[in-house]
């Protein structure tokens, strides 16, 4: 927009051009709010009818036509993406923040965070399966974003703890990504197989991750110190 010359007067047309379009702003706000309502309705429908639910069933369960859904979402991938983001923002992330934010000893903190993740996925299995089973479309961006967000959160916590103990924190980010990736994949396998209880899964994951943390602590976070040592498995303990 060009500046108005000094002394010039505004015409009615000029005034309308400079005045913010309140209708467009209200429509954008309405659309955002309506999308959230429809996403919440979608999550409720998935929990009720299962992960194999289709767009027709979602629309019917929410009480709208499929045309209404497509007015706010470009396609099923867009709706799936929004559902995943909503699930992470309102359920998964708050529970992880609470678990990681507790003032606990390191072992208890690890166990608490793993428990929060596994139990959240286990309690909302249909939502998880719906998102993960709908192909490799654009919604995978939401999955990747959620994993990245969690990994970055863990990296901050690990880095802070390492520095507080005087350790080298240079490996905090790759450690965090390997921890989060390992837990996510193991939980995904478990959701599909259920060959053990969730408590057993949590204990096995805690054992593995705590063992890695003990090694990091033993070497004060230094990869060079770790590499300088000889690494052999301990002798089996045959004591009963």
UniProtKB/TrEMBL annotation:
Domain of life: Bacteria
Originating organism: Antrihabitans stalagmiti
Region (Disordered): 1-29
DNA-binding region (UniProt annotation): 54-73
GO molecular function: DNA-binding transcription factor activity; transcription cis-regulatory region binding
Alphabetized UniProt keyword annotations: DNA-binding
Domain HTH tetR-type per the UniProt entry, residue ranges: 32-91
UniProt cross-references to Pfam families, sorted A to Z: TetR_C_32 (PF19344), TetR_N (PF00440)
InterPro entries (alphabetical): Homeodomain-like_sf, HTH-type_TetR-like_transc_reg, HTH_TetR, Tet_transcr_reg_TetR-rel_C_sf, TetR_C_32
Protein name (record): TetR/AcrR family transcriptional regulator
């Amino acid at each position: 927009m060009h500046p108005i010359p000094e002394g010039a007067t505004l015409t009615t047309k000029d005034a309308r051009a400079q005045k913010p379009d309140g209708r467009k702003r209200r429509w954008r706000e309405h659309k955002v709010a309506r999308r959230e309502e429809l996403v919440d309705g979608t999550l409720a429908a998935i929990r009720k009818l299962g992960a194999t639910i289709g767009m027709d069933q979602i629309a019917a369960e929410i009480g709208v036509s499929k045309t209404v859904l497509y007015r706010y979402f470009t396609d099923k991938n867009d709706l799936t993406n929004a559902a995943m983001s909503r699930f992470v923002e309102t359920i998964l992330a708050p529970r992880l923040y609470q678990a990681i934010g507790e003032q606990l000893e390191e072992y208890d903190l690890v166990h608490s965070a793993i428990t929060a993740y596994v139990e959240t996925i286990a309690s909302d299995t249909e939502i998880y399966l719906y998102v993960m089973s709908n192909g490799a479309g654009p919604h995978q961006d939401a999955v990747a974003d959620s994993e990245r967000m969690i990994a970055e959160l863990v990296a901050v916590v690990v880095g802070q703890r390492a520095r507080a103990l005087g350790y080298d924190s240079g490996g905090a980010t790759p450690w965090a990504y390997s921890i989060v990736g390992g837990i996510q994949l193991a939980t995904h396998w478990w959701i599909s197989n259920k060959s053990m209880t969730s408590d057993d899964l949590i204990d096995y994951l805690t054992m593995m991750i705590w063992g890695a943390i003990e090694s990091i602590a033993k070497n004060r976070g230094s990869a060079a110190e770790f590499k300088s040592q000889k690494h052999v498995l301990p002798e089996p303990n045959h004591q009963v």
